[in-house]
Automatic annotation (TrEMBL):
Keywords of this entry: Iron
GO molecular function, one term: transition metal ion binding
Classification via Pfam families: FeoA
PANTHER family named among the record's database cross-references: FE(2+) TRANSPORT PROTEIN A
Keyword Iron attributed: yes
SMART domains: FeoA (SM00899)
Residues in coiled coil: none
Gene source species: Peptoanaerobacter stomatis
Record-given protein name: Ferrous iron transporter FeoA-like domain-containing protein
Database matches in InterPro entries: Fe-transptr_FeoA-like, FeoA, FeoA_core_dom, Transcriptional_repressor_C
The Ferrous iron transporter FeoA-like domain, residue ranges: 1-72
Amino acid sequence: MTLDKASIGSTVKVTKLTGQGATKKRIMDMGITKGCEIFIRKVAPLGDPVEITVRGYELTLRKSDASFIEVE
């Protein structure tokens, strides 16, 4: 499952980052790495963007970026 498919209010664990190049580096620079836990706070009415909490801070991701993050 990818992060953009996770339900609101759930806590998920990152298993893999599938993006390439600059996109993958940008996601990792935000603190999203394999093994970290992510809490899905909110999703905008049209589904984009997704607001999450990772490593103690709030972060907003585009749905396209969230699709590169595989979670369990």
